[in-house]
Amino acid sequence: MSITRRIFLKNGALAIVATTAVPGFLRRAAFAAETAAGKKRLVVLFQRGAADGLNIVVPHGESAYYAMRPSIAIPRPGRNESALDLDGFFGLHPSMSSLKPLWEQEHLAIVHAAGSPDTTRSHFDAQDYMESGTPGVKATEDGWLNRALKAPSGADAAKAPSPFRAVALGTSLPRALAGTQPAVALNNINEFGIGGRVGAPAPIAPTFEAMYAQSVDTVLHGTGHETFEAVRMLKSADPARYTPARGANYPNGQLGQGLRQVAQLMKADLGVEVVFTDIGGWDNHVNEGGSQGQLSNLLRQFSQSIAAFWTDLGDLGADTVLVTMSEFGRTARENGNRGTDHGHANVMFVLGGPVKGGKVYGRWPGLDSSQLYEGRDLALTTDFRRVLGEAVARHYGNKDLDTVFPGFENSPQKFLGLLG
Amino acid sequence: MRSASRKTTLLLLALALCASASLIAVDKAKSKSAAAGRMEEEKRALHALNRLSFGPRPGDVEKVRAMGVDKWIEQQLNPSKGDDAALEARLAPLRTLHMSTREMMEEFPPPQVIRAIAEGRMSLPSDPQRRAIYEAQIERYKRRREQQQKEAASGNNNASAAGEDAKGGEGDRKDMDPAERAQRREARMYAELKSEGLLDMTPEQRTAEIMKMSNDERRALARGFSPEECEKVFSEFSPQQRETVLALINPQAAVVGEVQQAKLLRAAYSDRQLEEVMTDFWFNHFNVFINKGPDRYLVTAYERDVIRPNSMGKFKDLLFSTAKSPAMLFYLDNWQSVGPNSEFTKNGPQRRGNQQAGAGRNRRMNQGGFGRGQMGRHRYPGMGQPPSGTGMPPAGGQQDQMGQQRRQQQQNRRSGLNENYARELMELQTLGVNGGYTQKDVTEVARVFTGWTIKQPRQGGDFDYEGRMHEPGDKVVLGQTIHDGGEGEGRKVLEMLARNLATAKFISTKLAQRFVSDAPPPALVDRMAQTFLKTDGDIREVLRTMFKSPEFWAPEAFRAKVKTPLEFVASAVRATGVDVQNAAPLVQALNRMGMPPYGMQPPTGYSMKAEAWVNSNALLSRMNFALALGGGRMPGVKFDPQTVLRGAPPPEKSDAALALLEDALLSGDLSKQTHDIIKKQLDNPQVTGRLLDDPQRAPNLGMIAGLILGSPEFQRR
Lengths: 420, 717
Known about the structure:
The complex is a heterodimer.
Chain A: H1 2-19, H2 24-36, E1 41-47, H3 53-56, E2 57-59, H4 63-68, E3 84-85, E4 90-92, H5 100-104, E5 108-115, H6 123-132, H7 144-148, E6 166-169, E7 184-186, H8 205-214, H9 218-237, H10 254-267, E8 274-279, H11 294-313, E9 320-326, E10 346-352, E11 360-361, E12 382-383, H12 384-396, H13 401-404
Parallel strand pairs in A: 1-8, 1-9, 5-11, 5-12, 6-7, 6-8
Antiparallel strand pairs in A: 2-4, 3-4, 5-10, 9-10
Chain B: H1 4-20, H2 23-36, H3 38-52, H4 60-67, H5 69-77, H6 85-91, H7 101-107, H8 111-118, H9 128-153, H10 161-167, H11 178-200, H12 203-212, H13 215-224, H14 227-235, H15 239-249, H16 251-269, H17 273-285, H18 295-307, H19 315-323, H20 326-331, H21 343-347, H22 355-365, H23 402-412, H24 420-429, H25 439-448, E1 452-454, E2 463-465, E3 475-477, E4 480-482, H26 487-499, H27 501-515, H28 522-534, H29 539-547, H30 550-553, H31 565-576, E5 579-580, H32 584-592, H33 610-613, H34 616-630, E6 637-638, H35 641-645, H36 654-666, H37 672-682, H38 685-688, H39 701-709
Antiparallel strand pairs in B: 1-2, 3-4, 5-6
C-alpha cells in the first residue's frame, strides 16, 4: 500500500517539477525523495554460450593473435573491415561501431582476460558458478545478485520495497536472482497481469487480488501481494507510454526488446534497482566468421541493443551501471572448422554514468603459447567477482561483499578503479 | 446425496463464521463433524490423495474413504500390472512412446541422418509419409548449406544468421537476389492466404493440404502463425495428424513433444498414481535434460525402461540402470571420459587391425558438441526453449552444422577424464553434497567409470563397456580400495554408494520433502533411513514407513506443500475432470510457469520446495491457466460441468453453484475469506455476465471453477 502511495506522491511532485515553475522547497523535497529512495541501478547482461572475447575486443597488437586465427581474425585497424582501434593495442569488432561513441565519451570501460577462475569447460557448471557467485561450490542455493540487494535503510526501512526492485526478464527467476529477497520475473510487461494485456479490463483480477490479499497463507500471501502490487503499479505507471527516446533504435531480437522494457520500467519510476537479462547464441564451434558472419551478426545485435538502451535512458544513465559477462571464453586458436572451442578467460563490458570509461582494464596476459592457459586459452587475470564487487559496492552501495561473494577476498584496495 | 450432511456442516461453518467469526462456533462445527467420524476419515482420504496422487478427481475422496484409506495406500504401493485401459487409449496415438530409440531416429530423423542422406551416404526410405518428412528436412539442410557457402564466398552478408537462429526463422536476407526474395514473398503470401483457409478446413483436409505444400510454404506458414493460431490449427488434429505435420516441420520437436505430452496425460489419467508420482520423483532425482543433443531421443526410453519399472523397487537397481543408460551417460558426459593412462590415450583411438571399430570410436568421441540451439535464453526453469510439443515450432536450423563440427572436433578435442558424472553421482544422486566425499574421491570415481560409454550415441546405440578407455590400476574411493577390475569397479562403487548411510539419509530426506513438508521432521527421516538400510534400499518399504508415520498424518502436514507447476496443472485437470484431447496446451502452460517437462538443464532437477515456484510470473500464469481451463479457452482441453456435477442438476443459484464446486474441487476446504470473496464477485453482474434483469440465467460454472483453481487454497496439496 505504502509503496503505491509513495510512488504516486513522488510522481505528483515530479510532475510539478517538470511542468512549471515551482517553489524551491518543493523542488528540493522532490529531489530529496529521489535520493532517499536509493536510485542506483545495476543491470547485468549474461552472454550465454561462451562468447569469443578475443574477437570481440581484439588484441590487434598481438602478432600471435593473427597467427592463431588465420581465417577468423579481425584485421588490424586501418584495413578493410578492420578492428575499431581503442588504444593502439585493442580494437572493437567492426560490427560494434554503435558502442564506439560510448567509449569515446568515456562511459564504456572494458575488462579483458576476466572471468571465473573455475577450470570447468561445461556451460552448465560455469554458468551456475557465475550466477551463484561461488565458483567451484555447487551447494550455494541463492544467486549473487539476490544477495547483493541491500537492506533498505533510513526512511526506506519502514516501507515495503518496490516489487520491481529486482527484475529478471523471462518466465522464471534466473539462478543469479534466486534467494530470500523478493524479485519479479517478468516475461513481457504487456502481458503481465490477469487475463492478458495490461490495462485491459479483467473484472476477475480484483477477485484474485482480494483472495491473495486476505489469505492467511504466509507464503502465497506475500508473493500474491507483491504480484498484484506489481501488476497495479505497472498498470498505473503505464510503462507503455514511455516510448523510446529519440535516437534509441532498438534492434529486433530478444535482447533489444528486453532492454527496451527495462528502460520503460526504469523511466516509469517503478523502483528498479537490479536487472538481470541474457542473450544466447555465442557457442560458435563452426563457421564463427571474422569481420562478417555469425559472431558479427550477433555482436551487431548485442551492441546496438546496449547503445539504444543507453540512449533511451538519457539522464537516468547517470545512476545506472550495466555489466556484461559470459561463462568462459573460447580457445585462442581457431579450430579446424573456422570456429573456436571452449576456453577460459573472456572480456567484460562495464557501461554507465559513474564508469571511468575509455580504458581497457586488467592485466593482459599475452597470447604466446607459453602465456596461454593450459597452452590453449587466454589466461585469467581478473576474477569476475572483482568487477561485479566493485559495481555492487562502489556504485550500488552494498559494501557487504563477504555476503555477496562468500569466500572471495574483495577489498576496495583490489578494485580495478572502474568507477569514480 | 453423499454430501448432504457435509453440506450442512459446511453451511453451519460458513454461517458461524459469517455471523461473528466466533471461534466457539467454529469449534462447535468442528467437533460436530468429528463426532460424526466422517470428516476425519474424509480428511485422511483427501490428504492421502493429495500426496500419493496428482490430486483427487471428482468422486475420488469418496471412493478412497469407502475402500479404506490404508487399503488404498497399499493398493497404490502395489499397483496391479494389469493395463490401465483408459490411459493407454489416450497414449496410443503417441507412437514414439513405444518405439526404441533407433526406431524413433529412423522415423523422425535427426540432422545427422539427414546430412548422411544429403551427402549420399544413406538412402531415402520408401514409405511415402516418412519420405516426405525426410525430403522436407533434406531440402532445408541443402538450403542451409548453400547459404553458408554463399556467406563464406561473398563478403556481402548482412544477414543475421545468428539472429535468425535465435528467433528460429529465416527472414529475407539482404544478400538474396531480388528474384529469390520475390519468390519467398510470394510463398509467404500464399501461405498466409492458406493459413486462413486452413482454419476453416476439416482436420483431414488440413493435413492433406499441408502435405501438399512446398517446404517454403510450410515454413512460411509456421512462421506466419501466432502461438494462438498454432494451437488452433493443431487443436482439432488427431494426435496422428499432429505428429505428421509436426514431423514435416521439425522431426525432433515431434519426438520431444510426444514424451512431454505423455507426462501430462499420465499424471492426469493413470490409475497407478503413486507409480507416476514416483516416476516423476526419480526422473527428477536422476535428472536428464531433454534438449541436450541426442537426449531428445533418449529420454523416452530412459523414463520408460529405466525409471518407471524401478520407481518402487530397490534404489540400487535405479542407480545401476541410470548409470548404464545412454541418456545419463550422454547428459553427464561419462560416455566420453577416457582414462589418462588407458590404451585409448596411449595408442590412439585406432586399434591396429581393427580400424573400423577404432574409427567408429573416434567419431563417437567427438560428437559431444554443444549445439547452439541448446543454449536456451535462460538456463533455469523453462525459459527460452521453443514450446515444443505445441503447435508449430520455429523451423530453426540449429543442428545443421554438425557435420563440419564433428570433423573439426575430431581434430581438436582432447580426450581425458571427465568428472561430471562422478561428481553428480555422489553430490546429487547418492551421498548428498555434505555426504563426506572429497574432490579426490570425485577424481577416483571418475577413473572407475572410464570406459562406461555408449555405442553410437547418435544412432540410438546402447550402453557399451570399452576396456580400451578404462583407466588401469587400483582406485581408492571413500577410503576403500577398489582393485583393478574393469567394468566391475563401477559396480562395486555403485554398491558401496547405494548402501551408504549418507545415501539412506539423503534419499529419505528428499522423499519426505516430496511427501510430507519442505522441512521434514528429522525423526521421521531417521526412521526412513533405518528402513532404507535394513531393506537394502527397498523404496516401497521406505515409503511404507513414511505413510505409516504419525508425522505424515500430523495436522501440520495437511496442505503443507505448495504444488509445483506440474502438480498444479495435473491436479486442476484431475479436479475438473476435463477431457484432454490435446495435451500440448498443458505443456505450454508448464513452459510459462517455468517448469517445462524434462526441461531442467542442470542436473539438480527441479526444486520441490515452495520458494522455487512462488514468484510473480508463475503465480499470474497459474491464475490465467485456471481461468482459461474453466472458461474453455484452452484448445483440446474441454471443461464439461457434467463431470463435476456427476448427474446432479445444474444449480440455479450462484450460491449453490459455488458450494458445489468448492466441494468438488477442494473437498469444501476453502477458507471463509476466499469463499466470501468469490461469493461477492458472483453477485457482481459484470463478473458473472449475468444481467440484473436476467436472474434466471444459470451461473457460470466454468468461471467459478477458474476462480477456485486460481485461489491460494488450490495452490497447496
